[in-house]
Amino acid sequence: MKKVYDYLLLRGPHKPQVYFLMTVITAVYLLNFHVNDIWTPNESFYAEAVREMFESGNFLEIFYNYEPRYNKPPLTYWLIAGSSSIFGLNEFGIRLPIVLLGVGSIWLTYLIGRLLYGEKGGLYAMVMMAFSVQVLAVKQYASPEIPLTFFFTLTMYYVIKGFLTRNKKYILLSYVALGLTVLTKGFPYIIVIASIIGIFILVKGPDKWKRVWKEVKFLNLHIGLPIALLIGLSWVIFMYLKDGQEFWEVYYRETFGRALSKKTNGPKPFFYLEVISWSIIPYSLTFFFAVLRWFGDRKNISKVLFPVCWVAAMLIIFTAAKGKIPTYMIQAHPAMLLMIVPLLLEYSPKAKFWRTVWKTTFALPSILIIAATFYAIYFLGLNVLLYSLAVFSLIGFVLWLRKGNDPDWNVMIPFWSITAFLICFAIYLPRMERFRPYDELGNVINVEQKISKSIPIQIQETLIHNIPYYAERLAIRDQTIEEINNNGLKAPTLALIRDEDFSELVGFKSIWSGMIYDFSSESQFLKFVLACLDAEKGDFSKFAKYHVVTKDIE
Question: Is 280 helix (H, G, I), strand (E, B) or coil?
């Protein structure tokens, strides 16, 4: 029993605990990650683009719905394609590399924490990174946020290791990782990472200019930058040579253009502070406490100098940018959490007030998560046995309140509390598929009816973004009933139309009917969950009945 206790609360030898906790984290990340159909809209872009790569045999150019998609570089698409070539072009194969790179980002955070603060510090960093809310929101979503986080953090790991060991091999490896970062999201990340390193070099010690020049020489920019540019911009150069200004206008708009020229509703200097307030829950309050603590203890700021430079550079750059999206700060999560680690290792306030405040930054999120777990089990109608997870979390929380400011308990109670919540929520995910019939729709078109893929599917009034993937064909959006009827007079026709307009079609037959969520996006996830729960009770007000109809198809 004591051994179980030790593992749950980071007692005893650290190495076995690292492997135990990584096993737990990986298991939670993999739990039901593949059970849901491709989400609309953003995941659909990546899934369908990869499907079209396999269909055409062209893995250099990116198409969605058979139109060029210049928005993002190709590395995320290639990772998904590589996985799908092994495991099949399905939800498992498409999402697996994203989940594994999420786990990899956690491991890299552990390695950086270990480099800076020792084995225990690495453990703390790993645990806090594992289940921060914003990472969880994109951990199994086929999009570039998690691959970018992995390669960005890999770059930082090699930079830190290079500076600490004074080994140029790691600096050169950081340029390879930087190139992969750029190949994931675009060349502005050269500026982001260069700013982090530049600020760190400028502020890290005395004898500034002589030391700064020495550090710049150590970076081997004349060797490293060409490596990073060759890897990162290879696809951009290829596409520019092929498609010229047509490619460049879209690519620039989605990279620098979004930052420099996107319209905003005015300046938002605190936008990313608001994002941080929820994005690294359950440790957001602790992060803000750490910021205040380090501001008041500036003589010891060297302990967190690199993560402070990392967070500060990203806050300055993305706050100055006109286009603001919450996911832009995910790559700063490791640094935010690393700023907490030295306090966990050393901070022991004598004043009762500060001890209480410090402990409350862990306690408040924990009790809210435990309450959310109880409520989710009840509200979602989950198996009553799952209450045992919530009860164990609550017992741990009560035991912890009776203890002092033990750093192991401070870190692990939020971790195990959110683990229980995540398990419960993952168990709910398959139920949602009753109201996401996209694979069923595709099966009718391609397997049961065997409709030629040369016939596009016309979609009435909108574009449901994952229809091209499941229908395995071109989707023509925003069609009217008149246009669908007219097309049926000239050629074999396949269409997805709303039930209330079915009677207006002439000579068509329905080969499938079902309920589809009546909004263009499922990204407002809580609203979609509530819509599914209402539908389970017979309230389909957030859904519309659709038909797949055909005419004159042999």
Answer: coil
